[in-house]
Amino acid sequence: MRKGKLLLALGWLALLLAAFPAMAASKRGPLILAAASLQESMNAAADAWAARGHPRPVLSFAGSSVLARQIKAGAPADLFLSADEDWMDDVERAGFLQRGTRADLAGNRLVLVAPAGQRVALRIGRGMPIARALGDSRLAMANPDSVPAGKYGKAALTALGVWTSVSAKVARADNVRGALALVERGAAKLGVVYATDARASKLVQVVGVFPADSHAPIRYPLARLKASTHRDAEGFRRFLLSGTGRAILGRYGFTAF
Description:
CATH superfamily of the largest domain: Periplasmic binding protein-like II
Number of strands: 10
CATH topology of the largest domain: D-Maltodextrin-Binding Protein, domain 2
Order of helices and strands: HEHEHEHEEHEHHEHEHEEHH
Number of helices: 11
């Protein structure tokens, strides 16, 4: 009898232990893959959502190109926020988006930054002497071959007729926050980042804003993934697109359409 009770108790213990991971998972919010430039705004949005009584979303930030590759490799995420339409298009063509859930969330501006307190006599415009301003230093950019901020930056510098003069001086970063960090540390004299990145740092100053017509419109599309299983995924997507969600992004400098 005692042996039977012991086996029964051990059986219940095993069931409880097996249930712990599921219980823990139920307390987690949906997994959000978001462009690196969204860090402050998405953390604020996640906090606001949690304040409404929901599990706080789990946020993972990286360059949009990296996130797109993770999704196509089978990452079990719920929402994808890209910093450009190209990478969202790529994921959509591959069949990973939930139909009817894609929408543009916010916009941004592209700026040239320098370390705070550094004197830079440079005005953004066609033929600007940016190579001379750099001297022996570097121009920090997200990878212009794949990362949205870098692609926008290359397009802008090309439109202004100065890309060929600085392309050999570019210090390539994995994402826009990596480019920002190079300028913050003084490892690069100038950098091309989003206006929201510059706003988030006290260690850089804005030299100038690139003309809007020098690059494609900067748009952040949002979509739910087919792999999504979290019950809050659609609710959080709708929250981000609501007036409240867009207002949160607006507080961090993102633009509306």
